[in-house]
Amino acid sequence: MKTISKEQAFRIRRNLKDAGCGMPVVTQFLDLEQRHCRREQYRLLSCQKAALLQKLHRIQYKIDCLDHLVYTMQQEDEEERRIAPCKKPIL
Q1: Which has the higher per-residue pLDDT, 15 or 81?
Q2: HSE-CB for 20 with a 13 A CA cutoff
Q3: Torsion over CA of 64, 68, 69 and 70, rounded to 10 degrees?
Q4: Is this prediction's pTM over 0.90?
């Protein structure tokens, strides 16, 4: 079994936490590191990346919805500006 230094463990732990991984994933990854199970580490990281991408896509969809609403409102405002000069105030 491969032993990793405290500094290596600290760097790995910090990197995984910065990437949004919870303690169970961090613990599992460090265990895999000690057992030098690279293939499983790659699989674990790939699953975490897929989860982050899924969240990103859901958020991107929400942003796209807002952008569409703004675009629609701007189109309506532009249409009103084109029509408004033709209207004469009633006196």
Answers
A1: 15
A2: 10
A3: 100
A4: no
Residue pointed to by tokens 């790995």 = 12
Contact in structure between 58 and 24 (CB atoms under 8 Å):
no
Residues 6+ apart with CB under 8 A from 72: none
Q: How far apart are CA 82 and CA 73, in angstroms?
A: 14
Provide the residue ranges of all domains of the chain, joining segments of one domain with +. Answer: 6-85
pLDDT tens for 14-46 read 999 999 999 999 999 999 999 999 999 999 999
Nearest in space to 4 (alpha carbons), one of 40, 23, 29: 29
Q: Assign 3-state DSSP to the chain and report helix, strand, coil percentages, each to 5.
A: 80, 0, 20
Per the CB < 8 A criterion, the answer to whether 47 and 32 are in contact is no
Instruction: Report the amino acid identity of residue 19.
Output: A
